[in-house]
Design goal:
alpha/beta, Dihydrodipicolinate Reductase, domain 2, 6-stranded parallel sheet, 6-stranded mixed sheet, 11 helices, 14 strands, globular, disordered C terminus
């Protein structure tokens, strides 16, 4: 397979080179790898691992049109300008930016969940890292129980802002130790020894665009356009790997034991859940791992038998970007497009709500029936003629 990476010098681009080197056999071998970037980076020699040292070339359509797959690790504006043109010239384009994620004509793909939507596509969008990490742990639960609503709080590493974000956190940490004032350019405030509840731009509804990406993308990937989703995204002073606290309300009754078993069996997810031994997901352990870690699985106090709480961690440069993009290419190469099954709530569940499913539903039906019978009895008695007094 002939492959190109546009934006190879950024954090995601560098990870794409590494992942391709580790997994090229799954693509039938990478016979050619082209590294492309802006004129500023052209001529730079990069260590491409198993591919050897490669010279970065300045991007042009002519340099990619004979390739099989082109990965875009660039800005949304670049993708909007060139992605369709690249795809029309020949290669399949897998775009890591947010440019096409909400486009109904462009598949937004996590191969293990909705790879079938990429069939015959020439341009495929890679999801936001925050969405991808959560989705991997939530999908097996959704297949079994059906997710009615999702509440997410994120703890996002500096690397979510790219190589510049990581460099700024490191510099701020050194400055803090030395007692000097930290320089701020990437983030809104000093990130070292701080948390910032502001990731991406604020929207008219008070949510940030990062938070709304979780809403839009989860619905699209799961194929549930009316799923209730809410997210609060927070930047924290870790270098790499995002963490997320997830609360779900389900359509069907769920249990902690069954949820753990489903997560443990899922591809791309590792169950790390043994509180008695202090084993739970953490960014420091999820860093540089392909699998998402999931644990702290609990029955929801709020939603009872129809809800779960869990905690997940994943390397957003891998599962949330480079790895997922390469997995899409692998999926296309394998040419397997079977649509996975998902939970379908009944009409009655949708009408009456998840809280009236199962035993609660029959209790409510019984109460309604008893009330109706009592009302009928009262009305019947009231309508009987009374005897006149002598």
């Amino acid at each position: 397979m002939r492959v190109g990476i546009v934006g190879c010098t950024g954090a995601v681009g560098e990870e794409l080179v590494k992942v391709l080197g580790e997994r090229q056999d799954r693509l039938g071998g990478v016979t050619q790898l082209k590294l492309l970037a802006s004129a500023k980076s052209a001529g730079k020699v990069m260590d491409a691992g198993v591919f050897g040292p490669l010279t970065v070339e300045e991007f042009s359509i002519d340099k990619v049109k004979k390739l099989d797959v082109v990965f875009l690790a660039v800005s949304g504006s670049f993708s909007l300008k060139y992605a369709h043109e690249i795809a029309k010239s020949g290669p399949v384009v897998i775009d890591n930016s947010s440019a096409f994620r909400n486009d109904p004509e462009i598949p937004l793909v996590i191969p293990e969940i909705n790879g079938h939507t990429a069939k015959n596509a020439k341009l495929i969008a890679n999801p936001n890292c925050t969405t991808a990490i959560a989705a991997m742990a939530l999908w097996p639960l959704h297949q079994k129980f059906g997710i009615r609503s999702l509440i997410m709080s994120t703890y996002q590493a500096a690397s979510g802002a790219g190589a510049e974000g990581m460099a700024e956190l490191e510099a701020q940490t050194r400055a803090h130790v030395k007692g000097s004032a930290p320089e701020v350019s990437v983030f809104q405030y000093p990130l070292a020894f701080n948390v910032i509840p502001h990731v991406d731009s604020f929207q008219p509804n008070g949510y940030t665009r990062e938070e709304m990406k979780v809403v839009w993308e989860t619905r699209k990937i799961f194929g549930v356009p009316d799923m209730d989703v809410s997210c609060t995204a927070v930047r924290i002073p870790t270098l790499r790997a995002h963490a997320e606290a997830l609360t779900i309300q389900t359509w069907a009754p769920c249990s902690v034991e069954k949820a753990k078993a489903l997560i443990d069996e899922a591809v791309g997810v590792q169950l790390v859940d043994d509180p008695s031994s202090n084993k739970y997901p953490m960014p420091i352990n999820a860093t540089a791992k392909f699998d998402v870690e999931a644990g702290r699985v609990r029955q929801s106090i709020v939603f009872g038998d129809f809800g779960l709480d869990l905690f997940v961690c994943g390397d957003q440069l891998l599962r949330g970007a480079a790895l997922n993009a390469v997995l899409i290419a692998e999926f296309l190469h394998e040419d397997k497009f079977e649509k996975p099954s998902g939970y379908k709530p009944t009409v009655l569940q949708r009408f009456m709500g998840a809280s009236l499913s199962g035993p609660a539903l029959w209790f409510t039906v019984g109460a309604v029936a008893a009330t109706a019978a009592a009302a009928t009895s009262f009305l019947t008695a009231d309508s009987k003629p009374t005897s006149s007094s002598a």
